[in-house]
Design brief:
With about 280 residues, the protein is an alpha+beta fold. Helices cover about 35% and strands about 20% of the residues.
Amino acid sequence: MNNLPRIKSYKLLYKNVLRLKVNPLNNNKFLKLTEYEIPKRVSQKINGKIISKTIYLKRYKEIGRLNKKKWKTFIRRLEKANHFFRKYKPYTINNYSSTKFASPGNSFKKRFKNDLLTKKTFNYFYGGLKRKYLKKQMTSIYNSKQIKNTQNICIELFESRLDSVLKRAKFCSTIKDARQLITHKHVKVNKQIETNYSCILKQGDLIEIDTKSKKIVKTKLNNLFKEHFNKVLWTPVPNYLIINYKTLSIIFGNIQNFNFSSLFNFQNDTNKAIDSYFRN
């Protein structure tokens, strides 16, 4: 019995976001969409008489799925952040400033914690990438000699990945699902099957779903639209992707100088993530 190899257990990815106070995965694990009705009095003039009646308007809201005590604060924060006027408000990714002087709110311990949370949030937003891969990419971005905003270089790079493109095109509900499709040989790039989900796409590349696999993607899309149609409608599909949903094909367009604010439903300082991965 002692000679048996020890099985390494991994914590489910959605359980790692408990300390982040946001849901960068933007999946359906935490909230479910429910329908409710609100009464409204309507007056109408018929044959000279004013007749009033009550009609019921359909409305939708998101409520928590998880009932355990440890999730209560997190779920309450998510429900509050998912109100219409907050959820559909894009966050700017370029305007961040912080003082370099020490203070109780800017101590070394506080900055270390904030840097760590920023790194984790960025990592989970792109499906939980390996630290070695992130360190390599962030170092190349940090040392880039291009006269350009490093934030834009970083986001353009990660949004050009094959798994990110499938997620943005709504072919998959999560980046994990996109990776599964790719590794199981369901996706073609320029007419050839691609199994590397970290493949960086270039302008003009053609992404297609294999003919035998189209039914799988269409079924997933239909199920997602029935269960959580707001995840399909928001965030909007970026306009650098030219998509044909009948043939399930994508042409990757010009991603440079695109405003990525609508993709982020939380505040995250990308410059801080680049700097932290470069130095640690």
